[in-house]
Amino acid sequence: MQTKTKNNHIGRKISRIRELRGMKQETLAEELGISQQAVSNIENSEKVDDAKLEEIAKALGVTKEGIENFSEEAILNIIGNTYHVDNSSAVNYGCTFNPLDKLIDAYEENKKLYERLLQAEKDKVDYLEKLVK
After folding, report:
1. Coiled-coil ranges per the record (predicted)?
2. Between the N and C ends of the chain, which has fewer C-beta atoms within 10 Å?
3. What is the pLDDT of residue 80?
């Protein structure tokens, strides 16, 4: 006994593309001007008419053919064949400054500010002493 594969179930493809795009059914429904239940019905449908499929494709940011030819295996193959880690690249994603230098600079600036504040208080005390005499 053979089981029929549901490889060409357009509704499931729409659902999966929507999920991969990080879109909720409500959002897709708003884009299409229909209810969330209507989107659910579309995603459960094996076939969708061409005009509606064009609208859905536009809302999802893909082509109609992209939906029709969508397959999880193809996506995984593309990712597997194009993603690689190259640790030998000259790009440095670390800090471009030494955090300790920044901390020392802040400490020095704070120290100077404190000394100016202290001098201002001394000047104020001197001025008040002159007024009292």
Report:
1. 100-130
2. N
3. 73
